[in-house]
Specification:
Length: 209
């Protein structure tokens, strides 16, 4: 993994992806395939299959209940093993983004960072960033379709890090999907602003004291 540094003469773009009901969407058959690929012992796979597939549910609405049905996806809410299975299930998502400068997956929070060559003009940098962001989105969309983990585009954003005057930014579009640009974003509890001054985060912490 290479290191991406935002200097005074270049820029970097970050994409923060969010998944729809991430833990509730985990596909059992897909999990089995990935565990096999990781050479997980068959008896553990069989145990997990029994543990996950034997769960039942029903829907109750205004005192009317549906018939009981078997669950085909999702991990038990509040369980210790749920987050572990989710991480195992998505262990290969970073491989699908192998050309990215920096990528980080923490539970269901995915962040990627890209930076163009500092030899480019500001206009060329933005063109390069938009092209690379579209490529990342295309890879994530393909991954989400294959492994039945839909992306929540209403909560997926991108931001531009630039220590000089911010160039004109816009919404990124890919295969009919739109990703909105934000000047600052909260990621894993830290507020990131476009100039990486962390002033917004400092102000937030001060307001809590």
């Amino acid at each position: 993994m290479s290191v991406c540094i935002v200097s005074m003469i270049t820029a970097a773009a970050a994409l923060f992806a969010d998944y729809n009901s991430a833990f509730n969407q985990l596909w059992f058959n897909g999990l089995g395939l990935k565990l096999n690929k990781l050479y997980c012992p068959l008896y553990i796979i069989a145990w997990l299959k029994q543990y996950l597939c034997r769960r039942k549910a029903y829907i109750n609405m205004k005192n009317t209940s549906s018939s009981i049905f078997n669950l085909s996806k999702g991990v038990p809410q509040g369980s210790c093993i749920g987050p572990v299975l989710f991480i195992v299930y998505h262990h290969d998502i970073l491989e699908a983004l192998s050309t990215i400068h920096w990528k980080h997956l923490f539970a269901d929070d995915l962040a990627t960072l890209i930076a163009p060559s500092s030899a480019l003009t500001p206009k060329e940098m933005m063109k390069s960033l938009r092209r690379q962001l579209a490529r990342i989105l295309r890879s994530l969309i393909n991954y989400s379709i294959t492994w039945k983990q839909p992306i929540n585009f209403n909560k997926t954003y991108w931001t531009l890090f630039n220590r000089q005057v911010n160039p004109k930014v816009s919404t990124i579009k890919c295969e009919g999907r739109k990703v909105k640009h934000l000047n600052q974003i909260k990621h894993l509890g830290t507020i990131l602003d476009t100039k990486l001054s962390f002033q917004a985060h400092i102000d937030y912490i001060k307001s809590k004291i």
